[in-house]
Amino acid sequence: MTHRIQNFEALAESHERRDALAIAEAGLAAIDVGAALARALRIEDDGLHLNEKVYPLTERRIFFIGVGKCANAAAQAVERIFGDRLEGGIAFDVSPLEGTPLRKVEAYVGSHPLPTEANVQAAKRIAAFLTGRSEADLVITLISGGGSTLLCLPPAPMSCMDEVALWNELTTRGATIQDINTVRKHISLLRGGGLAAAAYPAEVVSLIVSDVPGNDLGFVASGPTVPDTTSAGDAEDVLARYGIVPAANLELLETPKDPNYFKRVTNLLFLTNGDALAAMRQEAERREYKCEVVDDRFAGEAREVGHAVVEKLRDAPEKTVLLYAGESTVTLGEHYGKGGRNQEMALAALNELREGELILPFASDGRDNTDCAGAIGDEVTRAHVFARNLSIEEHLDAHTAYDFFAATGDSLITGYTGSNVSDLIIAMKK
């Protein structure tokens, strides 16, 4: 059997671990973007059928724009679905294209979570590609997490390095993704509805894969096709709240506010963490666990979230699975090492877990700020810790969860999943 979790068999040292890993894989399968597009898009009688709506294709040019961690998978699916009807397109992803080569769609790779000049150049290419589209044209977009960093197109004299400086200050101070994206919307020409404005007057159908708790479309990838409800003043307020003094060359743009840009734009919530949670619950119940989806938008410090999960698990009956989705934060001190919020959560929970209890937090995109998706914590992990004479507290204080779990062998490895719907937590009691 082919596993989505690359080190499935190495991690499956107990029956409970095998169950938890299988539940995680069910969630990852449910948010497979290529498979979801194949289910959702159907061409029949010279029309594109999507949900209850039909988009006529007669004498229309069809273009594709994919931005974010799902762009490559979406581009491959769109080329299969539309074939020669597809005029061209751009896939701008955080990882190189793997698998089937693209015939009609240009593929670009950008950096994440910090932008580089490569991001700026690809964003410029997208803006140029969309310029001059006509009312008869149909632009299909697939917007996903990671897209905000990719769509770095600052007005002069700002550069991508100015955005890097802002990102570092905001994340160090524990800013939420909503606050970060409020600022980022106002320092790029393609965020906050800017991509829709660039495509005007073409018709745009935007399929959005949400990695934002609560699924506010305006904050997924900083809402490139969604009318922006924030202002430059809101961005100023965010910076002031976190005590950040803007650089002299920072210009906060106002996002496109003309409603004409959005009259022919359809924004559809395409995949969410709800799809993953439903599949995970079904798999848990198939394995005869009592299962509860506790929270689909958890937030807060990773350590505190981990403590809260363990506390609820402690009161749960035997043979229980608790499921969570959302995004935590890690407030870093002056000195810190290598890790991610899911690995830090597992590490923080490790000392509190009792015999028969397990926690598995992981990033649905497969990258928890490192090449690991997350980590598994249970009594097996503690045995590995004891055998290697490691200190949980020292690694927590140094924010080196990556090194810790690399040493114990309890990191979760999936590679890039081609999807991204926030972080997921499986908590289990045998």
Structure, explained:
- This protein has 430 residues and is α/β, with parallel strands linked by helices.
- It has helices spanning 8-11, 15-30, 33-40, 71-82, 117-130, 147-150, 160-172, 177-185, 194-199, 232-241, 273-286, 302-314, 341-350, 379-388, 392-398, 401-408, and strands at 41-44, 47-50, 53-56, 62-67, 86-93, 105-109, 138-143, 203-209, 265-271, 290-298, 320-326, 357-363, 374-375, 411-412, 423-429.
- It has a six-stranded parallel sheet with strand order 6-5-4-7-8-9, with helices on both faces. A four-stranded mixed sheet has the order 10-11-15-12, sandwiched between helices. It has a three-stranded antiparallel sheet with strand order 1-2-3.
- Helix 8 crosses helix 10 (232-241) and helix 12 (302-314) packs across helix 13 (341-350).
Secondary structure layout:
Blueprint: H1 8-11, H2 15-30, H3 33-40, E1 41-44, E2 47-50, E3 53-56, E4 62-67, H4 71-82, E5 86-93, E6 105-109, H5 117-130, E7 138-143, H6 147-150, H7 160-172, H8 177-185, H9 194-199, E8 203-209, H10 232-241, E9 265-271, H11 273-286, E10 290-298, H12 302-314, E11 320-326, H13 341-350, E12 357-363, E13 374-375, H14 379-388, H15 392-398, H16 401-408, E14 411-412, E15 423-429
Parallel strand pairs: 4-5, 4-7, 5-6, 7-8, 8-9, 10-11
Antiparallel strand pairs: 1-2, 2-3, 11-15, 12-15, 13-14
Helix pairs in contact: 2-11, 3-4, 8-10, 12-13, 13-15
